[in-house]
Design a protein that fits this description.
The chain is of the alpha+beta class. The protein contains 12 helices and 12 strands.
């Protein structure tokens, strides 16, 4: 069933991406592209029309299709007592998503309410601006606040060397500066649910694209005051919140106990990963998980002390944890194997 739904999403996406160039014969071209009947294509066209993604004109042989016009909506919310993300979602945001599929609306509800709540409770700002851009193929939302900036706040709360290391902590998950009221899972899961996810703050950008195995950290040319969160999702996505939650659950209680750590984010600038202090930076808070996947993409070499601290010292201190390494080249794998095989403390 999932395979059928995925195939349907591909067909509808093709229609939306090509209908402007072929308004009169999009049905024929789609049928030839996917090897399906015109009747099957018509079902997808009717769905897109019902969802407001397409507009039709004319009849029978003279019928043409075109994408629905983009709609934009913006509202500024003063941060004050009584501002509540659930009410904002229900009254202002959700109507923009109807009549999209329930799984798409579920993802938007989770992601928007998590990001809006973060701005209310953690930004120390005066206002939140929400911008919605509704397109035929996808919807994009920006949630902007004028506060301290998320990376600066995490840096100050955890005593990190610079704002870029805050991205490393966000990539791990379970990060919160208010443990009494928050689990720290919201940003992590939101970044995995959407097609495109980005946080812009200070001079750092944290991005994740669905299907990519790694998070991205960039340094833009322009300083960003406060925090801007960017969310984008296909209107025809077949993704569900449950399948994403399940991907990071190893037990039967649906607890968030598995994480993937982009090792390269432990670097400061262009430095090599060679020391125990760098390894300890990477290992911070990982005792909260049961399965840890260390992603060595973009890391060509590591030092003996770095590998030893993770795969011997930390592993022995947490014998019930499962430590896995992926995307490790030959030189990196050699250091990992050496650390695992060691029986005596290294220098």
């Amino acid at each position: 069933m999932v395979g059928v739904r995925v195939h349907g999403e591909e067909i509808r996406t093709y229609i939306l991406e090509n209908v402007e160039k072929h308004p009169r014969d999009i049905a024929r071209r789609t049928a030839e592209k996917f090897g399906i009947t015109r009747q099957a294509v018509n079902k997808h066209l009717k769905r897109l029309l019902a969802e407001g993604a397409l507009v039709e004109s004319g009849r029978t042989r003279n019928r043409t299709y075109r994408p629905a016009s983009l709609a934009q909506w913006t509202k500024i919310y003063p941060i004050a007592p009584g501002l509540e993300e659930g009410a904002v979602w229900f009254h202002d945001i959700k109507p923009h998503f109807e009549p999209l599929p329930a799984n798409v609306i579920d993802i938007w509800q989770y992601g928007f309410t998590e990001m809006f709540n973060n701005a209310i409770e953690h930004s120390n700002g005066q206002s939140i601006t929400v911008n919605i851009e509704k397109g035929a193929a996808a919807i994009r939302i920006l949630v902007l606040d004028d506060g301290i900036g998320i990376f600066k706040k995490i840096q100050n709360a955890l005593g990190l060397l610079d704002e870029r290391h805050a991205v490393l902590e966000l990539s791990k998950g379970k990060l919160t500066t208010d443990a009494k009221r928050h689990s720290g899972e919201g940003i992590f899961f939101t970044s995995r649910l959407f097609d495109e996810f980005g946080i812009f703050s200070g001079n750092v950008v944290f991005r994740h694209q669905f299907g990519e195995k790694r998070d991205w950290i960039m340094e833009p040319d322009q300083w960003r005051q406060g925090t801007a969160v960017y969310l984008q999702l296909s209107n025809h996505s077949v993704r569900t919140t449950r399948e994403i939650f399940d991907a990071f659950t190893t037990g039967s209680d649906y607890g968030f106990d598995k994480t993937s750590v982009p090792v390269r984010l432990a670097r400061e600038g262009d430095e090599n990963l060679i020391s125990r202090s760098q390894a300890k930076r990477l290992l911070a808070r990982l005792e909260l998980f049961q399965t840890i996947v260390f992603d060595f993409a973009g890391v060509e070499m590591i030092g003996q002390a770095f590998a030893d601290e993770i795969f011997r010292v930390f592993a022995r201190e947490h014998p019930r944890m499962e430590l896995l390494a992926i995307n490790a080249g030959a030189d990196v794998q050699k250091m990992i194997s050496r650390a695992k095989a060691a029986t005596a403390p290294a220098d």
